[in-house]
Design goal:
By secondary structure, this protein is of the alpha/beta class. The protein is built from 10 helices and 22 strands. The protein folds into 3 domains: 5-55, no CATH class; 58-62 and 399-482, Immunoglobulin-like; 72-380, Glycosidases (TIM Barrel, Alpha-Beta Barrel), CATH 3.20.20. The protein has helices at residues 5-17, 21-37, 41-54, 117-123, 142-149, 172-183, 207-224, 283-289, 314-331, 364-374; strands at 57-63, 89-94, 105-106, 112-113, 129-135, 154-160, 188-192, 228-235, 254-261, 295-302, 305-306, 335-341, 356-357, 379-380, 400-402, 406-409, 412-421, 428-433, 436-442, 448-453, 457-466, 472-482. The strands form 5 sheets. An 8-stranded parallel beta barrel has the order 2-5-6-7-8-9-10-12, surrounded by 5 helices. A 5-stranded mixed sheet has the order 16-22-21-18-19, with no helix packed on it. α2 (21-37) runs antiparallel to α3 and α6 crosses α7 (207-224).
Length: 483
Amino acid sequence: MPESAVTLRRKAEEAVLAGRYSEAAALFRKEAAIYRANGDVNGAKVEEMKADRYSSELKLYRHLPDAKAPAVSLPKAGELAKWEPPYGCYLGGFIDRDERLGTVFTDENSQMHRDPVLFNEMTGKNHASVFCYVSYGKRFPTRWAARLRGQTCAAHIAWEPNGGLDIVQDDDYLRTFAQDAARTRCPIFLRFASEMNGDWTRYGGNPERYIEKWRLVKSVMDRYAPNVAMVWCVNAIPEPPIASFYPGDEYVDWVGVNFYSVPFHDNNRARSALFENPSDSIKYVYKLYAAKKPIMVCEYGASHRASLDNIDRSAWAGRKIAELYAALPRLYPRVKCIDIFDNDNLKYALPGRQLNDYSVTDSPQVLEAYKKSIAPDYFLPAVWGAWGGLPLTPPTNTVIAPMPEDASSPRGILRVSAWARTYAETFTVAYKLNGKLVASVPEAGAREADLPLEKPGKYTLEAVLLDDKGRVATRTDTVIKVL
């Protein structure tokens, strides 16, 4: 007789207490499968997250030195979407309330903004776009977009019909908004009515009505503002309603997803989220849409202070940022833009939502982690096809490809990296060539190791994932033929 979910959970918890983490992960997954079979998606997700917490995975990647190496990750149609880069991932963010970024300026709606110049200086890299929120009914923020254009930075607008879908009509307001967007003569990412799958918006709840209004807005933008890319964006949870709100491939340019790393879900001490890997929040949306559309992480922030306990978790927040940004080129190559949420919600949030501080620049540890995470050339400082800011082919070592079981390489230095996860908070990946240790890399996300392949012949490359106590969590190996 098959074991019950209760029995599987009990055995999994016993395995955790005994330090048999891989066994515990397998048992939690079996329990989750029972919930899924019974239609309890939320219950399944809770147990799957437990399984992820105790799983150990190690995936090897090689960095291709030839700048002409194949780099384009295309949808099945074989064409890039509007403003989609052929390689890499745009950097973006929300910075308007960062008090460390100098003086503010206002737009036509008396809304305050900050220039990205100082943010770029502090983070060590230009950002391809920044975003702001605009309530449906307000004017297009022309002055803001023009100021960004002067800095070769694209405007990203979260356009929210907070008065409900009935206010969205084919009228002068909608057409004027589109015409003003067109007059900017620069890339615009328009994120209309996002997070509609959540019950906290006033424009969710009715998928048919939502799709009708989305298609109306898309048709008007296509007619009057060809520079506008429409971004259909959901919240990572809840998952079940997501697909019902999708307007259709011909009506969507990019698919977006919002999520955050927080110490506690819903400010509830009993719902700790400290063990969660942020890259898991992309899985569902990526599986559904990445084959057809470029994916944009429209909002991501890592909290380094929660109102619940007021503990400084800068080191933890830095690790979460490193984990996510390292996962993108390795696990999610069709994520073509990611926006960091640089905002103190303890101060700048609506009453009842002042729960976490997602600021980037107020914590030296968080800022340093972000700087390191975005430093690789994979993360792009300008929109491809605009202002002539990016080369047609990627820089050397920008293309990161999975390591095949049998690989070939010219003599010299082979750059490799790993994506890893395990039950320990911190860990190390050790690289061995023919049994000899050649590199040992602490993994707060993923870092590169340069392997010396000096002579022709076959090399066995072994990667070993070591937990915080030096124990082997998992390992993998491959054979490299040096020509």
